[in-house]
Structure prediction request, 433 residues.
Amino acid sequence: MSNSALFYQAGVTLPLVSHGKGIYLWDTQGKRYIDACSGAITCSLGHQHPSVTAAMKAQLDKVAFSYRTQFESQVAVDLGDVMVALTEDRLQRVFLVGSGSEAVESAMKLARQYFYVRGETQRKHFVSLRPSYHGSTLGALGLTGYQPLEQPFEDLLIPSIKVPSPDFYRYTEVDISTHVTRLLQQTEAAMAAAPEGSIAAFVLEPVGGASTGARMLNREYLQGIRALCDRFGCLLIMDEVLSGIGRTGEWFAWQHWGICPDILALAKGMGAGYYPVAAIMAKADLVDTVQSAGGFMHGHTYAGNPLACATGLAVIQAMQDENILDNVREQGRYLRECLEQMKVRYPVIGDVRGIGFLQGVELVQPDAGKTPFPASFNAFSRITECAKKRGLLIYPRRCLNGMAGDHFLVTPPLITTRVELDEMMECLDQALK
Ligand code: PMP
Prediction:
């Protein structure tokens, strides 16, 4: 157990990690953990993936870092081309960055610079959903609709116009379609209340992550938002930092509905835990407008370095070689079935939602309708601790003041087999008991 100068979570003593292999991690005491959440929904290919580590070692033996204003690298060019192909050429430009928060902020800056170059300097505002999570740096935190994270920094944030996210579990209308219609009307009113021509972009997670326990938007809602963006002349930014790169069974979640954003933010699965690799992708005309006026004014030292790009490229290649998307679709259905069966057995499970290997489980008070546990009960940490004691890692989130109960994500590495899922489910069953 560590006791060090590092500070992270208050009041928590963590085991020291020793090593990982496939979907398993070991601590220095020799205890084995099943990684049912891919770390932070990141390690899509598990640990010590042979072709990824080999590609990284090979790149290290050539050059790890070269600066993007001095050299281009072949691996960077190849990564860009491969990523565009994954969008079926619908997003033709790629800008590499180093983290999810930075990807979101780069998307915001690209949107703003695009309108600036076009002389639409009044287009300043962003619209985002509550609840949502878009990152921890100040710009991304301004979009994030999760009050406890925002409060201490409120005066530093660029406040976005927050509109309620659809809630397909606790909606009160007669059906989902009526719920969506009401929310779209509410959103339209909120956008119309902003000064005319002042909205730069609408930012949303097509499938939520930690903030909503894998709440998945639907076609009707997304079509409505796309139409509102067109009507108000603003861009649509999708934050797929968590849902992108195969997690949902498509390369990008927007491909489930065919509703393509103008700018897409990606991170976690891109480097799959092997190296911090992230990106924004955008439509060519948008980027070319910015490039023709001197170029995008953004850049961090480590962004797009050869080691990062070799990693990103090797991750996508391994996913293609191993037909990972097929595995996510097939085993994702099985995972969902298992969780739905648990919901029948355990009244503490109120809702199971999500898609592919991005599944969320919401906890409620047994036999009390959809009533969340009181925050003081700490349901999310209880279940996480029970699971961890049994050697199972899940990704928890505290309840959101009436907007959602405590929940946890089950987001295994995308390589997970059916036998491994059975082992995972057996452990989860024990923890829930
Ligand atoms: N957006 C979403 C949807 C995320 O889930 C996260 C990370 N959980 C971020 C942005 C921020 O990413 P990072 O932690 O890499 O900055």
Summary: The chain has two domains: 17-48+323-432, 54-321. The chain has a mean pLDDT of 95.
